[in-house]
User: What shape does this take?
Amino acid sequence: MNNEKPTIHEFNLDIIYEYFSESERQGPGNCKETLKALGFIDGLTEKSKIADIGCGTGGQTMVLGENTPCEMIIGVDNCHDFIHQFKQNAQIKNLQDRVKGIVGNMENLPFQKEDFDLIWSEGAIYNIGFERGLNEWRKFLKPGGYIAVTENTWFTEERPAEIQEFWHKIYPEIDTISNKVAQMQKAGYLPIATYILPETIWTDYYTWQTFRRESFLKKYKGNKTIEEFIVSQQYEAELYYKYKAYYGYMFYIGKKM
Assistant: This one.
């Protein structure tokens, strides 16, 4: 393996969307960890509103719907197919009256100032950038409202060149825990909780992909672009198992000051 392999961002979005469309979540995470993070949020009532930005098909959004009394939870994603599946999932769980999915871009959200009591984003804020997301989304929170996001983070100040170069190419904003917390404070939030998500969110994520890669290659047999995409996903998984001591997802939870 070498660092000349293409990264996920070099492929057509339609390929990426289809590949991940059959998963409950489009990134590392699970119900247990969503509930753990939700436990740090105080004051949600039947009048509260939540926005889940970069919701995908709504795995975590449905957990929020089932475990809060909130009047409305809005999931936003720029993939029409994800939102279509989101709406089906809400109906299956009988949450369609409170949990709504809309197609939208996190860089230009269709919300009003101080609309929400809580902004949620698991595995998605990197699309706009951690610091930019914290700053631009803050205006949508009511005073004292919360933000809860997961972010890929370095656990150490130094790390091997292979993994350093890989993540710098994919996401140059990856940084250490202390720097991420400082960015949250600078953006106008009081840090409430910061903790590492367990390895199981990654191993489950990559185990699912083992089977998905096989079916995807079978469906698109002979398609060189798909084959390159699968190689890139395999390489990412191999790097995680090799260098998991150096990085992983953190939950960052802050309160608007």
Notes: The chain has one domain: 28-198+246-256. The longest helix spans residues 200-219. Residues 80 and 173 are 27 Å apart (CA to CA). The two ends are 46 Å apart (CA to CA).
